[in-house]
Amino acid sequence: MPRLGLGVWRAVDGQETEDAVSAALKAGYRHIDTASMYDNERGVGRAIRASGIPREQIFVTTKVWNNEQGYDNTLKAFKGSLERLDMSYADLYLVHWPVVGKYKETYRAIEELYDQGLVRSIGVSNFNIHHLEDLMGSCRIKPMVNQVEMHPLHTQKKLFAFCRKEGIQLESWRPLMQGRLDLPLLGDLAAKYGKTPAQIVLRWHLQLGAVTIPKSVKESRILENSDLYDFELEPEDVVAIDGLNRNHRFGADPDHIDF
């Protein structure tokens, strides 16, 4: 699973999604994250095919949405995702949110897809520790990934430690805080390393051991977000960024979802 990927949430299906994915692939990205709810799986699939890059070299994630959950519904939803992507398998399939009363049956269906070889890896998204503990009490295959909101203002330290202990890879969505990067510390570190605040934050994610999927449809930003491998944050700077935590979410709280 490549540590850096492109997220396509809110990218409009068609030319916008195709251009973003094409730019990412040309820049060296080999990990694309979509979902049935994003309504752009078709564009993702078209861009991957047009790239000429062998399918097995690109890691593709998609997710089952909340109103598609349940055992039979999930099997049907996954079939629809594969048809829209025009692919024979997905590299990672996730339960998008922990819908109470449904996520266990949803995950059971995903285990079945894994057994059939239709999914190379399986996991969950937006699961807190108690959701993971509940799921692991009954599942056959431990989730391989937990994709959650994580960034300097919401560092998820307890969840990250739990996932590390259980061998679950933490993956970060909204890593750049929707562009809210005007924090003095990030500006100071950007000047110190000759990088942008966004690059500082993404490098922080990588050094912590997280997978991260910044979203952009602008080629210049996609290129900027991938320029992370010619510098390393000093340990004290990683700690300083950790200190920005305010347990502040920009997205929904998984314990209080109504969608």
From TrEMBL:
Active-site annotation: Y38 (proton donor)
Cited InterPro entries: AKR (IPR020471), Aldo/ket_reductase_CS (IPR018170), NAD(P)_OxRdtase_dom_sf (IPR036812), NADP_OxRdtase_dom (IPR023210)
A GO term, aspect molecular function: oxidoreductase activity, acting on the CH-OH group of donors, NAD or NADP as acceptor
Keyword list, A-Z: NADP, Oxidoreductase
Residues involved in substrate binding: H96
Site (Lowers pKa of active site Tyr) location in chain: K63
PANTHER family: 2,5-DIKETO-D-GLUCONIC ACID REDUCTASE, NADP-DEPENDENT OXIDOREDUCTASE DOMAIN-CONTAINING PROTEIN
Protein name (Swiss-Prot/TrEMBL): Aldo/keto reductase
